[in-house]
Amino acid sequence: MSSTMSRTTVAENVAVSRPKTLTERPIDVLYLAYFGIHLLASIAVDAQLTYPPYSQRLFPQPLRKVLSDYMSTSGDPFLAAAARGSGEHVWFRVLLMSETFVQIPFFVMAIWGLLNDEKRTYPLMVGYGTLAASSTLQCIASVLFGKDGSELTSAQIGGLLQNYVPFCLIPTLLTVDMILRIVNLLGANSSTHAAVGKEAGKDE
């Protein structure tokens, strides 16, 4: 009886660890869409302000116009501060550099990991989600309660929140989800090792 249960445990844990198709992971479709959109936005818009004005010269005129139009209509105080090299927003300029040199490569890796159900990317997603959620929350709080939103209209604040809130909530969900997945994987591995150990002990 015990031997049968051990074999069942091993079989169940193997089933848990096998790669699943994307249709079996609907929440991962959301993450995939998020990373795809964020990758395009980071390359087309945010990367231009990594080290202005020099970084902007690397981009074609149509993309520069996209950035210019967005900044003029949204009144985004953070991108505007980065464009003029504001000393009060050095923290945001650091985030832009991080996005260009760290997060863009990560987005590519995350998309690959989600497409292939690659569990080794889970810890990286926890790290990214924590950083993205906390930094975006800082921007939201600064717009709502700080001076960054003091000169914006209600429509502009609403537009910024429509951009910022999803980019705070989805990374938060991603972080919690990936932590739970890692915990489940660790538990499954422990059960497998225990079951295999019992079988080996009986064989001896």
UniProtKB/TrEMBL annotation:
Main location: membrane
Localization, UniProt: Membrane
Alphabetized InterPro entries for the sequence: EXPERA, Sigma-2_receptor-like
Keywords for this protein: Membrane, Transmembrane, Transmembrane helix
Topological relation to the membrane, as annotated: Multi-pass membrane protein
Domain EXPERA: 27-175
Name the UniProt record assigns to this protein: EXPERA domain-containing protein
TM region positions: 29-51, 90-115, 122-144, 164-183
Keyword Transmembrane helix carried by entry: yes
One term under GO cellular component: membrane
